[in-house]
């Protein structure tokens, strides 16, 4: 496989609370035929600028939006791939996409089916743009236009940010106490707005931290398990079987060679 090309840029400052970043990618000669789309803290939007994206067991998509989930999404990969990956905070979905994260939970839908003509035209506009900086400008333009006054409950927002900072290593009962709600009420409101229960969200955040550490070369799984908030290595392995569909060792062997830790390694507006 030839070296992949990446371009990364943060969104417009007014959008950064609800969109983490834009990632443009071009890959040629891909030999891994099936990629595991792993659970993460984000609702994921991928806009293909090449062939449609094949979600095995589901359908083919030009611009799939994947809600919060606790199982891997299996994606059939073509030799040539080009597109844009957008990382969306689940609490920003109502304002940006016009639906709730709860409605998208464990679902994949076509961006053009969400009812916004502006969103439906995005794939065509991005494909016609001459370079990555212009594509990222178009994303800013569209999402700024879509954004509306539809903020989540401040208690849920605060709890979600607290969970992210702690990488899922905070008790649900503690969060409920800190926002002044009963655990049941907190759980119901949290699930309604994010699409996962607080316990499921914490699992995803711990899993995401473990995956990030693996990408950065942490090979001692027993030590990594403790650092990620698991009881021990066996707990880590069981969670990976559930959330990734394989053990950490299998994932390292099959997929890690095709991935790179993108944090801090790709420059904004790089690529063309």
Automatic annotation (TrEMBL):
Which key words tag this protein in UniProt? Answer: DNA-binding, Transcription, Transcription regulation
Q: Does the keyword Disulfide bond apply?
A: no
Q: Which domain of life is it from?
A: Bacteria
Return the Gene3D superfamilies for the record.
Answer: Homeodomain-like
Check the record and name the SMART domains matching this protein: HTH_ARAC
**GO molecular function terms attached to this record:** DNA-binding transcription factor activity; sequence-specific DNA binding
Q: Where is the HTH araC/xylS-type domain?
A: 169-254
Q: Which PANTHER family match?
A: BLL1074 PROTEIN, HTH-TYPE TRANSCRIPTIONAL ACTIVATOR RHAS-RELATED
| Record protein name field | AraC family transcriptional regulator
Q: Which organism is it from?
A: Amycolatopsis acidicola
Q: What phylogenetic lineage does the species belong to?
A: Bacteria, Bacillati, Actinomycetota, Actinomycetes, Pseudonocardiales
């Amino acid at each position: 496989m030839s070296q992949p090309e990446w371009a990364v840029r943060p969104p417009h400052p007014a959008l950064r609370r609800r969109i983490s970043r834009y990632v443009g990618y071009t890959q040629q000669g891909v030999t891994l035929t099936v990629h595991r789309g792993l659970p993460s803290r984000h609702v994921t939007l991928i806009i293909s600028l090449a062939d449609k994206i094949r979600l095995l067991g589901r359908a083919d998509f030009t611009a799939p939006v994947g809600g919060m989930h606790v199982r891997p999404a299996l994606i059939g990969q073509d030799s040539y791939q080009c597109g844009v990956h957008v990382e969306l905070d689940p609490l920003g979905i109502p304002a940006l996409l016009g639906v709730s994260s709860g409605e998208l939970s464990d679902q994949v839908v076509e961006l053009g089916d969400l009812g916004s003509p502006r969103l439906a035209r995005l794939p065509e506009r991005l494909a016609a743009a001459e370079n990555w900086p212009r594509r990222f400008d178009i994303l800013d333009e569209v999402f700024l236009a879509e954004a509306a006054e539809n903020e989540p409950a401040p208690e849920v927002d605060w709890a979600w940010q607290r969970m992210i900072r702690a990488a899922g290593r905070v008790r649900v009962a503690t969060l409920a106490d800190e926002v002044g709600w009963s655990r049941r009420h907190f759980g119901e409101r949290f699930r309604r707005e994010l699409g996962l229960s607080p316990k499921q969200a914490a699992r995803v955040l711990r899993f995401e931290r473990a995956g990030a550490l693996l990408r950065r070369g942490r090979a001692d799984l027993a030590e990594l398990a403790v650092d990620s908030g698991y009881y021990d290595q066996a707990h880590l392995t069981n969670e990976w079987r559930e959330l990734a569909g394989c053990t950490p060792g299998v994932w390292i062997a099959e997929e890690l060679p095709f991935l790179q830790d993108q944090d801090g390694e790709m420059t904004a507006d790089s690529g063309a």
